[in-house]
Request: fold
Amino acid sequence: MFRFSLRPGHCLIKALAISVAALAASAASAQVVLKYSRWLPPPHAINTKVIEPWAAEVKRVTSGRVTVEFLPKAVATPAAQFDVIRDGLADFGVVLAGYTPGRFPVLDLGELPLISSDVAQLAPAFYRIYAKHLAPLDPFAGTHVLTIFSTTPNHILTRSSLVNKLDDMKGLKLRAPSESAVAIIKAVGSVAIQKPISEMYELASTGVVDGTFNARTAVSDWKLNKVLPYLTVVKGGIGQPTMAFLVNSKKWSSISAPDRDAIMAISGEKLAALAGKSYAEHELAADKNLKAQGMTIKDASPELMAELEQRLSVVGQAWVNTAKAAGLTNAEAVLAEFRAQANR
Reply:
């Protein structure tokens, strides 16, 4: 009787133990850490004003089930970041599509010149266009797009003088920040040297290049004004990089559906708008800082703008042709919609 009376209790205790163990295992499996390969300098606005606040929000909206781990150094080079994320060498990272020539040609839309001077409008506008028209082409296969946006419009940064007319650019060796910039540089009669911005200071200080296309923010962040002291400001920009926040597809799938939904609710266009706002604020601050350091900054003349508009029309048409070949049959309409969205 004694042994028989304890048997139900033993079963209950055993069942409870199994349930607790199962719950513990379930909780452990629900924890997902996204390892971030950070190649941009830690003080860069994308890190301090966008990714770090976003990472804190990810932790909050998932009640700590998903967190972001900032790796001590980048995995591989800036140009290799897409492969790093797709292949799972890191889970999450920033990809500049223009750093890998010819790989993401349809995304060159976000890098076209003379689109908009207002990055706060431009950044979320490109996300909307991407989500509506470009995402179906699946340019980032093997990854999930958290957001994508155009960054601050670039201007003409040079060593010897401001650019007053198109002839001033003839023969200049210019570092190209992207594949689309190569086409722009060739169209204005300059020589393109495609290298990442991390190499720009050395290239300029050793005379390998005569200039580049950069926003004020990048000039300030990388201290390029010390070697390239002249900035000619182009209305609408002479192009700009597109930046994507990507996460490895398998890693993304390991996150529960409710947590994925919660993360996307703070990503997408909302995150692109945050990036655009941050870039706009830092561009104003960089302008003030660079002028205080003695940099010469001047708006392009109406004559130069007219020459650029005429010469660079071929760049937009080249994108239309490329996009059509990639399957975007309404490429002209998409370009027109992007211009309208970026300037509304």
